[in-house]
Amino acid sequence: MGYGGKVPHGMTTYLVIVLPLVRAAGHEVMACFLREPHDSARDLERQGVATRFINARRYDPTIPFKVAQVIREFKPDLVHATQVQAVAVARLLRGFGFRYSLLLHMHNLDVLPAPLRWANHCLPQPEQALCVSKAAMGPAITEFGLATRVVRVFYNAFDAARFGAIGPEEGLQVRAELGIPAQAPVVGRAARFCLDKANDRLVRVMPEILRRVPDAHAILAGDGEERPGCEALARELGVAERTHFMGHRTDVARIVDACDVMTVTSPADTYPYAALEAYALGKPVIGYRAGGMPELVQHDVTGFLAEPDDHLAFARFIAQCLVDRPLRERLGAGGREFVRRFTIEGHVRELLDIYDRTLIAGRSGRAAAR
Q1: Do 216 and 88 sit in the same domain of this protein?
Q2: 35 shares its domain with 90
Q3: N or C, which end of the chain is more exposed by having fewer CB within 10 Å?
Q4: Does some domain include residue 303?
Q5: Residues 175-203 as b or e (16 or more Cβ within 10 Å = b)
Q6: What CATH number is attached to the domain comprising 299?
Q7: Could you give the 3-state DSSP secondary structure of residue 38?
Q8: Enclosing domain of residue 15
Q9: How many structural domains does the chain have?
């Protein structure tokens, strides 16, 4: 599981929700973090899921040896590996004779460096590989060398009821904190500030949004290395007074509720949770037709999608939604209907069935190899 720090990425958020339910179904579960201690571990431990930290640097050559020691101690029947490095380590150790069934969880659109791509193509195949979207299937095969027969789409779960459990006035309270009038049109973005999230795109289109909607405001929640640059950009473009940077927040539902429209600015996000969070609170989503976005945003049904480099259309769609309340309400209702299909209970039932089939396939493969 992912990197350390206070801000979990989407896959860690997913596992924090799902792993306690896997344990409740009768499985013994350990979450092994390759990197430094992570706040998400506390959530898991409170729910009875054991955690272990390798506490290694990125691309530390000792990671396989440290993971091997964890596996010798825990003796898992199945390893469920996520993230580029963990996937590689789990496959590598299988090649060195560790006898566990292997399930990979793929959510990357990365183009790997040629040596790393070649190395991945030489590693043993898993019993199954789950891709969080159709968009993730291509790289799973071309970059990670996974056989087509083991790859399938398995959309992540989302607990809409739990996320949307806030009071009716909480969005207005967030606006008050920021000095935003209760009736002002507000566009939002909630994500880590890193290059692949491209939060600067919302800042860059703010002048065009304000030209079309003079009383508009933008809220950007999140933190990371790109935040100072985005704040400087807002000052440079003269939109700093209308662009509110809130830093890292744990009350994301309140932030979403404070906005009329939510955006996903990532150029290639495989499965943006931010879209589902918006839908849970009846907010339209504006993004780009790239990565997994077309699988989550139905154009003119739950939101709008601009072409990948058409930032003017991105701004136009935002402005259109900000000024047209009936349109927002129609798209918001479409989003609420869409998000109902991502139930936690149904997802975990299917995941447990996948675990069973992965275990059976692994045992059969090992028996055939004897």
Answers
A1: no
A2: yes
A3: C
A4: yes
A5: beeeebeeeebbbbbbbbbbeebbbbbbb
A6: 3.40.50.2000
A7: strand
A8: 10-157+344-365
A9: 2
pLDDT tens for each residue of the chain, 370 residues long: 555 555 566 677 788 889 999 999 999 999 998 888 777 788 889 999 999 988 888 778 999 999 999 999 999 999 999 888 899 999 999 999 899 999 999 988 878 889 989 999 999 999 999 999 999 999 999 999 999 999 999 998 888 888 888 988 999 999 999 999 999 999 999 998 999 899 999 999 999 999 999 999 999 999 999 999 999 999 999 999 999 999 988 899 999 999 999 999 998 788 888 999 999 999 999 999 999 999 999 999 999 999 999 999 999 999 999 999 999 999 999 999 999 988 899 999 999 999 999 999 998 877 666 6
Rounded Cα–Cα distance for residues 230 and 227 (Å)? 5
How many other CB atoms are found less than 10 A from the CB of residue 307?
Answer: 11
How many Å apart are CA 355 and CA 121, to the nearest integer?
A: 24
Tokens for 348, please give them. 């975990």
